[in-house]
Amino acid sequence: MDNSLMQIIEKFPRSRQNLIPVLQAIQKEQNYLNREAVSAVAEYLGLGVAQVYGAASFYTQFRLKKTGKNIIKICKGTACHVSGADNIIDAVERTLGIRKGETTADGKFSIEEVACLGCCSLAPVLMINDRVYARLVSSEVKKILQSYS
Amino acid sequence: MEVIKNPEVLSVWRKKILNKNTFYTHTVSLCGGTGCQAGSCGTVISAFKKELARNKLEKKVRLRVTGCHGFCEQGPLMIIEPDNIFYCRLSPGDVPEILTQTIKNHKIIERLCYTDPSTQKKCPVESKIPFYAQQSRILIDRNKNTDPSDIEDYIAENGYAALCKSLKMQANDIIQEILKSGLRGRGGGGYPTGKKWQQTAAAAGEKKYIICNADEGDPGAYMDRSILEGNPHSVIEGMMIGAKAIGADEGIIYVRNEYPLAVLHAGIALEQCRNAGLLGKNILGSGFSFDIRIVRGAGAFVSGESSALIASISGKVGEPSPKDVHLSEKGLEQNPTNMNNVETWANIPLIIENGAMWFASRGTERSKGTKIFALTGKIKNTGLVEVAMGTSLKKIIYDIGGGSISGTVKAVQTGGPSGGCLPASKFDLPVDFEALSEAGSMVGSGGMVVMDENTCMVDVARYFLDFLIDESCGKCVPCRIGLSRIREIICRITEGKAEMQDLELLEEISQTVSEASLCALGKTAPNPVLSTIRYFREEYISHIHDKKCPAKVCKSLIKFSISPEICTGCGACKRECPAGAISGEKKQIHNIDQSICTKCGICRETCRLSAISLN
Ligand SMILES: Cc1cc2nc3c(=O)[nH]c(=O)nc-3n(C[C@H](O)[C@H](O)[C@H](O)COP(=O)(O)O)c2cc1C
Ligand code: FES
Ligand code: FES
């Protein structure tokens, strides 16, 4: 058993109310929730693996696969949609040759879709790691992505 | 920080803070909200700090980093008091000049002022800018006077005075005041807040909970997170008053982990309250004990629904349960629970402080007070807008929003995925819970997306369906299967493969989903489809009958072509086309191969001569 994993888990009292906080803490440390983490949490909280897996797959925040070095979050909110977000998503997918939810073979980029980044006034937007790119047009996408490689 | 043992100590503290603030000649409120952060306000903030130090002005000029001011589109932005000067679209390079010109010499820098797009005039003063001048900003206006991580700013603005007042009141008198104010829930349902409190207060049980719903799942709306980010104490004070009225001793703020600034600021504010003795045992010597903790949601639209939210806090999958038992009787851990939305809570201290009549003086017969909307989409002035209930859509869209960028506004979508689209002919309608519902939309939680002739209403309906299918928990059949069937038909329409009888089928399935779904997500899910069919039927017919998308959005029905009269053969489009669909020799007219074109539109963005048209 992974020691660091148990250290994270054991910080939380054994109560079902802590299921989501534990998963959040593990993902923060380990980037994603692997099989081992899901089983360990289930055992610790006295839940079935299916129950933990159910929660992990229900909430959009949780990932069950490791992400690439740079996480691209594309906003699919209403404000961004009417301002042409679909074309931005297409451009990112085309440039990287992967789809939403996937990671490039070289491990450099992952694409995630998010409901709203909270800068709807600057739509359409995307975020790479902690930096937001606002008022985008699809022809700019390639250059932005190149600046990360 | 000192511990406040009674209301008198709080008053003394407030006087001290106000006195301290008189030493400053200027206060600069620089927005550090999520929108302005996207515009790199962080670099402006550090430049300002550096310049203040360099000019030895730190003791004279107060730099206050605040939450969202509302006009995010113009960010990064600042207000310089006492003259109420408004500077926007700032960059770090502007900072030295602001100090030497405006702060030292009272000179206005024209370049940094906002230009009114309709008159082309510069507006140096915030309160004169049409976007702000026509609002009724009782909630959001407090953001600019508040550093959310400094409790002293909130206290200076009479913060926690309403709490002191309520601690001297009988629980029932507080509830009566809220009932009289006419406040209705701002989370979408519009349920009378006083009535909900009355039910939870009357419910049997020793232990009672108060919950603040800050899940804000409506994509494209950010009112709640802006209040929590910019003025967390207003929400906390509201919850304290509610807890006293209802008899709760534990509160929870349920906020999405995806809203990092809101989580951070709410956490800091709670900590400060505990240190000051405003939360905990025997608050202000009144005998009343109460504390609040934060639960970070992991993001799911349906988890914003009250019963689903309770499940989520309990560590379960955030699915709704049938509403035969009310939360007011059996909520969290089977105890009576009172849940209200962020904006609802933020209104409470104002009502207690200023009285129910003050609050009810704004609004309509059945909808009182103000409402914050996130005004976005194809409109000149986007941002957070707070208006008195009853304000017409027209006033919001044209007078505050400045009208459309392209010329005409076609529709406005309110109420998020549960709401509907209203056409321009309905813009005289007031924002009022009943009026918008009768017209087929709803006030909702406050999303307001403006659409113009380049927005396809069938595509909008498809967009919301995609969102709802993604977010549906799948527990009940009408919602799970019904929405997918509706989506299939809508997709056929956008692809030009539908027939006229599909429209009737759409309406029929929508009816069933509305009637038979388990929770409000399913019950309201067909609204975007039904409202667009109701008001934009001719657009559906163009897609079905003429195989045309009038807004030129639906990819199966549009075609890009190069105008031979304009094309000079520069080759820019050919270089940029990711599909390699464009051919042509240098200085010769270029051509798009329709069989390869993916309709991404990059060629049209690239062409400097506008030679590429969309039909
Ligand atoms: C699918 C769905 C999503 C909801 N999401 C939210 C939300 O994000 N925030 C919110 O305050 N209320 C949301 N609600 C409404 C809540 O169920 C509840 O009515 C509200 O929080 C009560 O507070 P109020 O009376 O102050 O409005 C949602 C309802 C449904 C059906
Ligand atoms: S809709 Fe894209 S940031 Fe809100
Ligand atoms: S975030 Fe700065 S004005 Fe809204």
Give a quick precis of the structure.
The complex is a heterodimer of chains A (149) and B (615). Helix content of chain A is 42%, strand content 12%.
How would you characterize the overall build of this protein?
The complex is a heterodimer of chains A (149) and B (615). Chain A is α+β, with helices and mostly antiparallel strands. Chain A has helices at 3-9, 19-30, 35-45, 49-58, 78-82, 85-96, 141-146, and strands at 70-75, 109-114, 126-128, 131-133. Chain A has a 4-stranded mixed beta sheet, covered by helices on one side. In chain A, strand 3 and strand 4 form a beta hairpin. The longest helix of chain A has 12 residues, at 19-30. Chain A is elongated. With 615 residues, chain B is α/β, with parallel strands linked by helices. Chain B has 5 domains: 24-128, Glutaredoxin; 151-360, Rossmann fold; 370-452, Ubiquitin-like (UB roll) (Roll), CATH 3.10.20.600; 457-546, de novo design (two linked rop proteins) (Up-down Bundle); 559-614, Alpha-Beta Plaits (2-Layer Sandwich), CATH 3.30.70.20. The longest helix of chain B is centred in the C-terminal third of the chain and has 18 residues, at 477-494. Chain B is globular. At the A-B interface, helix 2, helix 4, helix 5 and helix 6 of A face helix 2, strand 9, strand 11, strand 15 and helix 18 of B. One FE2/S2 (inorganic) cluster is lined by residues 31, 33-36, 68-72, 75, 77 of chain B.
Oligomer: heterodimer
Shape by Cα distribution of chain B = globular
Strand count, sense and barrel status of the largest sheet of chain A are: 4 strands, mixed
The amount of beta strand of chain B, in percent, is 5-15%
| CATH homologous superfamily identity of the largest domain in chain B | NADH-ubiquinone oxidoreductase 51kDa subunit
CATH architectural group of the largest domain in chain B: 3-Layer(aba) Sandwich
Bound molecules: flavin mononucleotide, FE2/S2 (inorganic) cluster
For the record, give the distance between the C-alpha atoms at the N and C termini of chain A, rounded to a whole number. Answer: 36 Å
Largest interface, counted by CB within 8 Å of the partner chain's CB: A-B, 46 and 58 residues
Instruction: Return residue spans of chain B where pLDDT drops below 50 for at least 5 consecutive residues.
Output: none
Instruction: Give the neighbour order of strands across the main sheet of chain B.
Output: 12-11-15-13-14
Tally of DSSP β-strands of chain A: 4
Number of helices of chain A: 7
Secondary structure: helix percent of chain A: 40-55%
Report the principal-axis shape of chain A: elongated
> What is the tally of beta strands of chain B?
19
**Helix residue percentage of chain B:** 25-40%
Report the β-strand fraction of chain A as a percent range.
5-15%
CATH first level of the largest domain in chain B: which class?
Alpha Beta
The CATH topology label of the largest domain in chain B is Rossmann fold
